[in-house]
């Protein structure tokens, strides 16, 4: 039991440090490339960091239990022998994880925008107006739980190599941060080109934070397009909407 506890603590620290490093790097980049963008948002950023560090524990505990089970009991479908699967399966496993995670996120995200779940939990995330590079994990604990179970569950269902899993976690971290930065860090050719029509970018997610009832995806626009909730790219102008306006929109629900 002590080993499980220590593993959970270790993973919590890893998730917390990963968040601080990733958000800190992109916040510094924002200060350099978009000076003044976060002016006057210090109290909001402090709240984002506090909520995010609480979320780190909620993400870290199940990850720590799974890591202990994998190393000591052989749980999960994580494999270390590259010969166990063909090399072409490595990129396929990355895509499968990202698509499965995106699917889970889309539907739980839509549910969180129902009046009850929104008021109870998701309002914490949308209190960031505009979101900053520190807001990627700024969740109420109930919302953090919905995200914390995704990857730990997938390792029991879909075989993956540790290197591929590390890539998945890196993509998750980078896209989570960059989509909340308040500006597009990726080249405009990607954002507005063919790839951008299927990938979530900061411009796309900004529209979700502005209008609430659209653009629910995490990595891909597939489910938004299929379900008619994709409203395209948003604008970073006038992103600091009054709190009451957005909250009144959500009392009537999503669908």
Care to give the gist of this entry?
This protein has 11 helices and no strands.
What is the approximate shape? globular
What is the count of helical runs? 11
Separation of termini? Answer: 45 Å
Determine the fraction of residues in helical runs and give it as a percent range. Answer: 55-70%
Q: Can you summarize the main beta sheet?
A: none
Share in β-strands:
under 5%
Element-level helix/strand string: HHHHHHHHHHH
DSSP summary, beta strand count: 0
Give Rg in angstroms.
18 Å
Structural class: mainly alpha
Mean pLDDT: 92
Low-pLDDT ranges: 243-247
List its salient traits:
mainly alpha, 255 residues, globular
Would you kindly provide a written description of the structure presented here, covering whatever features stand out?
The structure is a single chain. The protein has 255 residues and is an all-alpha fold. It contains eleven helices and no strands. It has helices at 2-33, 42-73, 89-112, 115-126, 141-148, 150-154, 162-178, 188-191, 202-211, 222-227, 243-250. It is globular. Residues 243-247 have low confidence and may be disordered.
Topology summary:
Elements: H1 2-33, H2 42-73, H3 89-112, H4 115-126, H5 141-148, H6 150-154, H7 162-178, H8 188-191, H9 202-211, H10 222-227, H11 243-250
Helix pairs in contact: 1-2, 1-7, 2-5, 3-7
């Amino acid at each position: 039991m002590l080993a499980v506890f220590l593993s959970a603590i270790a993973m919590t620290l890893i998730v917390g440090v990963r968040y601080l490093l990733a958000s800190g790097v992109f916040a510094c980049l924002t200060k350099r490339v978009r000076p003044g963008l976060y002016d006057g948002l210090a109290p909001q950023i402090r709240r984002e960091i506090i909520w995010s560090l609480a979320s780190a524990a909620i993400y870290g505990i199940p990850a720590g239990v799974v890591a202990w089970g994998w190393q000591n009991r052989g749980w999960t479908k994580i494999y270390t022998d590259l010969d166990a699967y063909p090399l072409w399966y490595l990129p396929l496993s990355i895509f499968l994880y990202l698509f499965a995670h995106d699917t889970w996120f889309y539907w739980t995200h839509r549910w969180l925008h129902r009046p009850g779940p929104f008021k109870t939990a998701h309002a914490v995330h949308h209190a960031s107006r505009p979101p900053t590079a520190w807001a990627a994990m700024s969740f109420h604990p109930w919302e953090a739980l919905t995200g914390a179970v995704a990857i730990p569950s997938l390792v029991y269902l879909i075989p993956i190599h540790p290197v591929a899993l590390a890539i998945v976690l890196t993509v998750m971290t980078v896209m989570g941060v960059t989509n909340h930065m308040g500006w597009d860090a990726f080249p405009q050719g990607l954002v507005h080109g063919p790839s951008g029509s299927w990938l979530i970018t900061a411009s796309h997610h900004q529209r979700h934070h502005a209008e609430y009832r659209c653009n629910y995806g995490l990595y891909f626009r597939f489910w938004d397009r299929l379900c008619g909730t994709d409203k395209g790219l948003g604008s970073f102008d006038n992103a600091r909407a009054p709190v009451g306006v957005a909250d009144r929109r959500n009392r009537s629900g999503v669908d």
